Amino acid sequence: MFHCLSLLDTEEEKDFLREIFETYKDEMFYTAYVILENKQDAEDMVQDTLLALIPHLGKMKKEPPQKNWNFIVTIVKNNSFNRYKKKKRQADRELPITEEILRDIVDVEFDTKVLEIEQRDFLVQLLGQMSELHQDILLLRYYHELSTVEIGELLGKSPDTVRHIIHRAKKKLQGMLEGEELFGSS
Q: Stretch 13-17: mean pLDDT, rounded?
């Protein structure tokens, strides 16, 4: 935590990062521990998450706590999965995104077709059927409004790769929605 604070310029930023740490440290640790199954790795992940948040503190100050938590947990999960995959060389372990986070996605404008859907519960169910990567990419891009460059930095992927994943995720979601004949029906 002290290393992170030393990277900040203003007392206001330091206070805000301290507040984030105090508010979410247990949840960040628990989320990382569930994935990494190791206390030291989970503690390191909390530190890594705080470092990843530094460039976004200005934007986070303007957001409600639930949106900030969704952003934080996405970073913790993705970085934990990346570390887990490096250590265990297993790419098939996933922590499912919570239904609450999925519900938050549909409360935000991320595609005009999604806004037309009156059956939000059904959309949440469809998103839950998508891969963890597609869920997280859509969450970061359209709920947290991060650029492809920012998402790439968080996930360790190139902006071009992020754009391709976003395109595939949106196309898959659109196909799932059209397959249910939700568009154009009354």
A: 83
